[in-house]
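Standup notes
- DV: blocked on the single-chain target, sequence here:
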Amino acid sequence: MENKIWLKNYDKGVPTTIEYPKVPLFHFLEEAARKYPDRACTIFKGAVISYREMNALTDHMAAALVEEMGVKKGDRVGLFMPNTPQFMIAYFGILKAGGVVVAVNPTYPVDEILIPVNDANIEVMFTLSRFYDRLKTVRERSKLKRIIVTNIKETLPPITRLLFTLVKEKKEGDRVESLASGDVWMKDLLAKHANSPKPNVEVSPDDTALFQYSGGTTGTPKGAVAMHRNVVANTLQIKSWMTGLVEGGEVVLMGIPLFHVYGMVAGMNFGMVIGASLVMVPNARDLKDVLVNISKYKASIFPGVPLLYNGLNNHADVKAGKYDLSSIKACISGSAPLMRETKEEFERLTGGKLFEAYGLSEAPTGTHCNPLNGENKVGSIGMPLPDMDVRIINLDDGETEMPQGEIGEIIINGPQVMKGYHNMPTETANVLRQWKGQTWLFTGDIARMDEDGYFYIVDRKKELIKPGGFQVWPREVEEAIMDHPKVLEVGVGGIPDPQRGETVKAWIVVKPGETLTEAELKAFCKEHLAPYKVPTHYEFRSELPKTTVGKILRRELVRQHKEGK
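- DV (later): unblocked, structure below
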């Protein structure tokens, strides 16, 4: 306790420690169905599934998986779909069957889908009909045996469903006339098992709940293995942090992808544990759909990424005041640095709070957050959540604890830290290490802690730029450039340089309707950065490569530069 100086700055009502129930993850759904049976669990294009109905549907799906699809305890089952009610039915059905959820990004091409499918030995996989052909190709090159297919229209309201069938179904690739032998329609499985109870499979807190694979574009994908108790703990840590919310009365806008642990834990599971209604948005890049859903359903909680908040800030209809966003109370921003300008403008537009957090797939998902009511320090990821211990360790020896204010690698210890990486003992040993008699997760992120226990991410250890022997962290250059009023987005990376060994390059997206020259931007950087940090190369683009949760892929930009793209 003596080193946890952040505890004194917790919001009133946030506990320093939590008693975690020894229950499987699906306990949250069963409890919500008991407490709020008639409350909307999901809202999708106007169609509502209550908590009672969702709990029953997941029982039926679990029975179907065990009795008909041959899923046994510990089997990994794939999920290949965006944010829809079907995702939740499949997710909790898998867990209730004793299976392990492996959610895969539905934008992935065949080669990237194959990595988790083969590594996790997935034999059964759920998908939307529009992706069915892609999974049939995956099956030819893997152990995948059976595909459970759902059409997006199956959870639409009747009128919307009819219009979709007439106008969009064929055009958008959702129509599938027939399934291959052994494959089944999800609606048929549910209908067949409409009276089946939850299967009698004992699932304990120490059983595996999730394999979460890191993105293939950021290195070799690794499957982080989370037990039920890890996800239960993190869900309750996040709940304890969000004080002042009305249990059974909030509405969560689910724009962040559910196939990512951030959406899964900080959105879906957190929403469920407080009995919130979850408004499903399959594609958050459709900003109009996001705005319509916030306005129509009075969304009060809106987890997201800076890219999304920035997009809404700059949306013409938002600037024109066409949407009522005043229902928003609290937004946790994660996955990328939240710039001060984005935070202040979003809070001005909505009247709600936008605060930066930090997490990773290896601790699914959150470890730090700025307080809801207390001071939000510019550039800080906030303080560790309850029951977390966090230290800053020397970059050179990996052992010595750094003094307050000094930078080093951030290491964490807490109840949500993963069991390890699947089939990767060396990589597991590299990140889960003994330090002072306990197992700590070495994150690879560089950070510092201030006198109040607030942490600041400096950058990724692997992305340090060394021009002429100096050290430049991309994030600080990006933050300086983002202060320019004409800049919408920026990515910074190190590129080869014959004189300096490496030099700094910036890739910039200018705000719509603005013009900006290299000379103007370079002069601006010279005013705000030390000479060796000022980029020597600038490239203006219409967009930057990003992960599905909006994190700019610096290494991809560097790769494109090296390949002359």
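- Follow-up: Residues 51-67 form the longest helix (17 residues).
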